[in-house]
Write the structure tokens for this entry.
Amino acid sequence: MSQDAVIGIIGGQGWMGRALGMALLERNVVSPERLVISSRSSRGEAYRNWPGVRCVKDNRELVALADVVVLSVRPEDLASLEVELDDKLVISLLAMAPSQEIANQLGSRRVVRAMPNAAAEIRRAYFPWFASPQVSVADKRLVQALLASCGTARELPTERDLDYLTALSGAGPAYPALLAQSMLEHARGAGLSEEIAREAVMQTLVGGSLLLETLGTEPGDMVERLIAYDGTTAKGLRTMMDEGIVQAIHRGLDAAHRAAISPP
């Protein structure tokens, strides 16, 4: 697949389609003239700084113009897509839609499934992807370049891995947001002002995450080290663990994984 391929994003005004399209343009991965988006609701206001981007309302027109088609619609909308890809490369961002279902619906065996998360908007997404056997090495190089524009892209060996990561990394900020909400409610209850409570929680979570990323060590090593200090943090960690925080997280991930598993 040529690096000069025209990229079409079905649903290019939705949150993920827009994030990917903007990242491709801002990082010069794709020139405006090689990007086509479709949207039922608008003529591409998000792309007004790139007048060369073609905006269409008819998905069949997009397919005719594009060499690579990105699906960025709701999973329940897949069945209503009346397009024929004639074995063009398709990159699906849909959860719960296996490769075979996409191939059957769109008429292409060159299917890549990818699972973004909301951090794509700030170019910090984890973007795992799985390619069907018909996807060529050249196709894969192009897919990696396109998806890496939004953060870290990683090819996976099995589609089963992608189903699991739909539940884990696909949740994006949802799990940290739940922790932040709980901490913020507690801080408010302790009498802190809204400004200080929010600032303290966000800096604690963001700073701690960046430190873990920078250190590159096992998170459990830091937990054990802090418990060994036997200070205030150790008291908090022990209580959370005794109350079942680990088990609750595992049960939540299990539930999300069950919902994400592709049908046989």
Remarks:
- The longest strand covers residues 125-131.
- The chain has a mean pLDDT of 94.
- Residues 13 and 45 are 8 Å apart (CA to CA).
- DSSP finds ten helices and eight strands in the chain.
